[in-house]
Every structure is written in C-alpha cells, then in structure tokens.
Amino acid sequence: MKNLLKIVILMISMLTLYGCRDTTLKQLNKILTSIEIPAEITGDIELKTSYGLNGVTAVAEWHSTAGNVISDTGEVFVQVYDQTATLHLKLSLGEHFVTKNFNVTVKGSEDLALLHVLVQEQLRFESYEITSDLPLYTTYIQNNKTIYAEWHSDNEEVIAADGTVRCQESDIVVTLTVVLRLNTAELTEAFTFTVLRDSALAPVNWWHTVPVWTDTVAGEAKKPVPPHCFPGAVYRKVFSARDWWLGIEAVVTLPEFTPDPERFDETKLSYYLDNASLYLGGNAQFESDVGLTWSIGYPTKDATAYSRSGIAFRPFWRYITNKEPDCKNCYRNSDVKALEYYYFPGDKIRISVFTPEIGYLQMRIELLVPTEIEKYAVQRSGYELGSDFNKVFTTPLFPSEGMGAVRTEFKRVNAIDQVGNEGHPTINTNAKAEGAIWHEVYLYREITGAIYRVPMTAERRAEMACPAGKNVNGDFTNAIITSDAGVDAALGGETVTLDPCNGTGKLYNSVLYFKKKEKKL
User: How far is CA 265 from CA 261, 298, 427, 501, in A?
Assistant: First the structure.
C-alpha cells in the first residue's frame, strides 16, 4: 500500500513538472512571437536585454553573426552597399529557453557614398610635406548638397583645426582627422602630414644672433691643461675645457699666406709643401677639424684647369665617425666650382661650428666684409659674382658622435700644415701666415633653458704654440706671434701671425726619429 502511494505521488509530481515546463515554453514562445526585428534597416536598432508579456519577463541574449554590420547591442555600421547579418536571440526563463534567428539587411547609404566621393574629389592634397596653411573648411558642397566637416588635429601647435600651419625647428608629423556628416550618414577620415622645419628656426640661421653671456657660468669646468705638441705643423691652438658646450663661433679676419718658394714638389697637384689653414673643431668622442684651408682652384671664372698653387681659402670639414658607410676618417670640402665660396686674405667672416642635433655638427661661414687687399679684391671681381652673390656657406649636418650628449671640447686653430709630414717633426720653413685677427670668439652653451654665446676668454681656455721651441730640424721659438692689441680680449679676441722664418730648403724629413703617441690638433 505504501509503495503504491509513492508511485501515485511521483506520477502527480511529474505531471505537474511537465505542465510547468509546457507553460513556461508557451510563455517564452508568446514573448518570442511578440518581438519584431525589421528585415531591412538603415540605422541602429534596439536589442533589449529582457522582454515581457502579460506580467512575465524573459532574459534576452543577442548575438550577431557579422559584428562589423550589426553589433550584439544593435549598433549598425552603414556602408555604401547593402550588407546582411543574422541576429541570434536566446530567450530564457529560469532554466528554460527558446531561440530564434532574424535575418537582417542593412541598406547601403547614398549619403555615405556621397561622403566618399567628397573625400576622393575634394580632400586630396597636393603634397603631404608642407610648410604653408592647409585649406580646411567646415562645409563642402558635393553634388549640390551641403556636407558638414569637423576637423581635429593631434598637434594643434603645429597644424590647427582651421588649417593654420606653424613650422617648427624640426620636421614634425601631424595627423588630421575629419568627421563628415550628411543627414544621418557620417564618415571619419585621417590624413598624415609632415610639417617641414622652418629654415629660419634651424640653429644654422639663428644661433649666431643669440645674446652674449658675461656672468659666471654655474658649474663650469676648470681651465684645461694643454697637452704636448703634435708634430708636423706650425700652429696656434686655443681650446676649451671638456664641458657642456654646444659649439664655437668666431668673427675673424683671414690671414695672408706666403709659401716658402724653396719648399715645393713638382710631382704634387698643389706643389707647395706648406699650406695655411684656419679652422675650428670639436671633440666629444672623436675629433673634427672644420674651417678654411688655402686651396687650389679656378683662377678665373672661365678656367677649366686648377691652379698649381693655392689661390683662395675654401671650406673643408674633416671628421671621424662610425656612421658613414664610405669612410671613418672623412674629409669633405666645398665644390671647387662654387666660386662664391672662395675666401681671401683680408676677408672678415663669421664662422661657427655647432650642434644642431645630438650626435651631429654643422659649419656656417658668412662673409661680413670683403677684403680690401687689392690683388684679392681684383681676383674676386674677376669671378663676376655680382653684388648679391650668396655670402653664407653651410655644410650639411655631419656625424660627430657624442655631440650634445656628453661633455665636449671645442677649439680654434691657425696652422701652417706641411704636406706628407703629419706626425713627423716639423720642418724648417719660410712660409708665413700673417695678420689673422680673431675679433670675437664664443662658445655656445644652453643656460637657463636658452642658448647663449659665452666669450672664450683666457680664463676658460688653454693655449698652445707649436712646435714648442726647438726640434731635430731647427728652432721655432719665435715662430708664433700673438697679441690682444686692437681686439677685445674680454670677447676672446687675439691676433695671430705664424712666421717661422727658419727655412733651409728642406723638403721632407730624412732623419731617424721615434714617433710620439700624442693627441691630434
């Protein structure tokens, strides 16, 4: 009897459960039937997370088979052409659920197509490397329809949203974004521009105009100790301590060079064996010599052959680097055909070597006052350069590792170099370089966030006159004559004449000697 009663109770429970399940599914299906999703749409649709009917609420879970057409939340991404997606709905009450798929077509937009046409026809720029303002508008007319535009810049200081361009000291990449709208259609496009550097803001064009700093320089390194002379030339070298210098500038009148008439070698292209140079330089990790050397060249504007001896000072830059593919100890000079960059004794120039960016140097030479020495003035006149010829020479940036990143030494040098004799004992000579005038000499330095010119005075420089006294060839004790008469020593001024006046006609070293391992000039 008890077992029969249990069976009856179990059967009643099962019938009740099945009845409840059936009721729940009916309720879910009624709710499902009440949900309407259009077969074609042009914009976002509402996909609820729950639906109710007759006091019963079911939980809804939506999934789109094409999330780039319709998202799971009903966001629609209209394109130019029709697109399709299937929306899968799962409707749940407790543990019971029903499902249904809705096939939906998102209609293409003619307005959006017109926005694309606008981009192709009106938003194509002549160049994406720019220096001038861009034509950016807030409305455009396309196919007689008004389209609204909203521009945004990721760097308003360089390119503003209205298209105003402000060039900076270096090239800068800027991205502009425009949002185009027509009725409900919306299109976002991005454009990347490179705003080229403003040449007027480049260090080569303004560092020589910065103020002079005459106060104490906080934390400045002590005056350096000069090393031993490097053999092979007659030279006057003035150099700074290793410190946070960024370059060197000088206003200088070029000397007049007279070669020793007995020291020549007919087998050489430039047959005199002594040669004058006046240059600057720097050393962070490697040495550089950058300036002017007395050079062969074209004696007249129509000449097709070089002179056999020097006729003018021409720019050169010699530097050591690991960055050049074709050289380590690199030597460059100005184009021999560029007659406007022939400089002559008596020319007053401004010459500078500086760090325009970390790891690089650049040289600038500006002719301030042309020579009045008749023979050289006549020579320049014969080149027929005209009165408005280019008076500023600049090198390209060239590598000099460590510049701007480590403490650096800078120098100025007057020299009589001897051909084929570098590192060997200086040979007696009657060659001379007379009348160089260093009117002003400055070191560049960043102080309180700005670039200044700091006078290269005796208190912050070391000096060398080489050879120092006698060597195996002769006596050079009085070979170098310096003075601060007529110049301002407080601005680094000095006059320099190189006149060994001890020539014997000797061409090359023939004696035995032990080569010293010493620093370069």
Answer: 11, 20, 15, 20
